[in-house]
Design brief:
With about 350 residues, this protein is of the alpha+beta class. The mean pLDDT is about 90. The longest helix has about 35 residues. The protein folds into three domains: about 70 residues, no CATH class; about 90 residues, Nucleotidyltransferase, domain 5 (2-Layer Sandwich), CATH 3.30.420.10; about 110 residues, no CATH class. The strands form three sheets. Strands 8-7-6-9-10 form a five-stranded mixed β-sheet.
Amino acid sequence: MSGQEQNPRQTINTSIVYETCLMELFESCPVCKRVCDVQTRRIGTFISVQQLCPHCQFTRNWNSQPVLGSTPVGNLQLSVATYVNGASFYKLSKVFKAMNMQLCKYNTFRRHARMFIEPAIVSYWQKSQEGMLQKLHAEEKVIVGGDMRADSPGHYAKFGSYTMMDLKNNKVVDLQLVQSNEVGGSYHMELEGLKRSLELLKERGVTLDCIVTDRHLQIQKFLRESSITQFFDVWHIEKGISKQLEKAAKKKDCEKLRGWVKSIRNHIYWTAATSTTGPERVAKWTSILNHVQDIHSHDDPLFPKCLHPLRIAQYRWMAAGTPAFHKLETILSTKRILKAVAKLSPHHQT
């Protein structure tokens, strides 16, 4: 037992023990070998056994797990494991019930979360955040990315969690929880989260090089007025274009589009990764309209020809004037798309 006490309690191995097997250890007195009186007490996964020999008065108290104050360690560890892994207590209780295993009540689980788990998480986060902000303060230029996740899609969300990341180190720098009634509606939550995160970085003396976000119109306006360089996350734009292409490919005479969706998806990522200026990105992006026609020389001097080796003619080449090509041209070369392509992030993505 002394060897176990020297080790951190969370590193001690645990096992499933059947109660009948456990009670066999307490049936007889270790001194006089006669039958003992045994009483048990249970608290969730914890069981305490009190052994009393009525003949020689030998007594022994045994606990199935260590106890911190009045809290059995096993119960607390199970609550921690459930909470930090995002598991459902109700599903866990079904598993325990199926195996006839003892489990603490849901109210106990919530008390553990309120009193121990959540304060520990907040404390650890605050210490980690402080360390990250100090490192960012020492850097000359910082590239961050921001995005919001809401509790429901569309414009009916009540809560939104805005996350700001250091994209060089791929670490979360700040989290802001915004409620829709604070800002007059769910559409305004993302801008408010961004403002709060940027204000924190400003207070801590962090110098921004640029920020990578989605194409939220309010955020574009705010960053433009704040003279903060903004780039767009490629995934958000690629997702929208892919959806349009998939939808168009289902129409009559546009089936050929389906064979180009993956290539166009790869092309937008390649455009972002290999370009250094907005006009160069647009030139590379629009070259795909020639490429799909098996034309690999282009009029734009910023990207005069395709970089890939010449290939044998493929069956999926398109022809100008066909419904499929017209639809492709309409989707890929709108003013809004070209404006977005010019601001694709050349650094990192959110």
